[in-house]
Amino acid sequence: HNHLHLNIHKFQENKANMQAGRCLHHELLAKQSSCSGNLLPYSRLQNTRKATSFCSALEKQDQYAASSSEVEKTIGRRSLHLGMAATLPLTASLLKAPSSQAEPLTLEQVTPKIVPTTQLTSREEQLINVFDTNTYSVVNIFDITIRGRAAAVPEVDVPEGNGSGVVWDQQGNIVTNYHVLGSVLKGLGPNALKAAAGPPRVARVTVLGTDGVQQTYDGVLVGADKSRDLAVVKINAPPEQLRPVTLGQSAPLRVGQQVLAIGCPFGFDHTLTTGVVSGLNREVQSVVGSIIPGGIQTDAAINPGNSGGPLLDSAGHLVGINTAIFTNTGTSVGVGFAIPGDMVTRIVPQLISNGRVVRPSLGIQVASPAVAARLNVTDGALVQLVVPGGAAQRAGLLPTRRGLTGIITGDVIKELNGVQIKAPPDLSRVLDELQIGQQVPLKVLRAADDKAQQEVTLLAELASE
To answer: What confidence tens digit (pLDDT) does each residue in 112-136 have?
Structure first.
């Protein structure tokens, strides 16, 4: 097909010269007829023959062009039959003379079709409603003693002491993690709240008001509980600008249940991530080193800056405070942990009222897993030491001690107030749910000098730590 186009092109280029030859041929014939039968000179005869030959070639070219036109039409029909619609425009463009410059395309011609927005699904509407309702209850908290560092993106500044918090009430109390304010709290020492100058300023708190405007306030320390990685600061904001979070229950949570996290990861405020409860009753080692019992594990993305923010159920109720992630890179890998909401609701009122948490205690020191394993204790909480005059001593609990035949293991607590104790964190979790002065039964395994063990039931009155 391409070869045919090339021949047609060549024919058009030579056509003008052939027309000149045809005119010469007619001129010679006319002169020959006017010579009354006389012969032409040899040179003139040669020119006549050349012209005649040239005209014969021209006639053949005309026949070839006509034949080529028929072939071209046949090829066009076959190309159209085969669906090759581009062949005909290309052929026509080759045969016709060059045209002027093509008209420019309009915006409408180069704009793809835009599909109308589809209706939201019921699940999307639910997530949007939960976020819209609770985003005003989430604040951004900055430790005042640490300056920001440059992030990977120059336009973004990520403070080292950057975290999230939850509006607890309209009096301005904000709940966050202890480690979010760890630097300033470490510098203040344990007696910071007893200073004559009043509560110390520890943070800058940015609040999204109900009018959609963000405002930053100074936050003063109200109370802190390092062992459970919780702290409360207070801001002087108008009550109408504060929207407290709705408290829920963490005890009924089930693995697989949907949860949402709202916070300020890497300084990007009011960020929503979703996931499910992927584990319950985890022992969470907080950033400050304490062990938090009963932790909630989730695959909702929790990154630096999410700490102190809320973990919500699908109804938008607080079921935990995000506190830690398990990672080798410093960013989320799908294993995050939250302080259970039931623990938060027990601790925060004490921090607001007293500035500290007063927990019920048995007055004992529990042996570490390594020490318990060396003494062949694999289940329960092994009593290593008993505080003189404490609840355990008054109840008759025995510590680990040296006997005539060697080391005698202390009492192993197997049950407290009717709840089975399988490991030391279980003991801490159960004690958190009890009250000072409450009398609780204990079931322990007691070893004698002959290595025999017997189950003993005791009654202890809980004292403060």
So the answer is: 988 888 889 999 999 999 999 999 9
Task: Go through 14-23 and write b for each residue having 16 or more CB atoms within 10 A of its CB, e for each that does not.
Answer: eeeebeebee
Q: Give me the half-sphere count of Cα atoms (radius 13 Å) on the Cβ side of residue 14.
A: 17
As a whole number of Å, the CA-based R_g of the chain is 46
**pLDDT of 31-85, one tens digit each?**
544 444 444 443 443 444 544 554 455 455 555 445 545 544 444 444 444 444 4
Q: 93 to each of 4, 83, 98, 244, 324, how far by Cα in Å?
A: 14, 19, 8, 74, 70
Q: Measure the CA–CA gap between 346 and 359, rounded to whole angstroms.
A: 10
Say if residues 146 and 161 touch (Cβ distance below 8 Å): yes
Q: Which active-site residues does the annotation give?
A: 179, 229, 307
Of 178, 365, 206, whose CA–CA distance to 288 is shortest?
A: 178
Report the pLDDT value the prediction gives residue 459, as an integer from 0 to 100: 93
Q: pTM above the 0.70 mark?
A: no
Q: Is 330 in a helix, a strand, or coil? A: coil
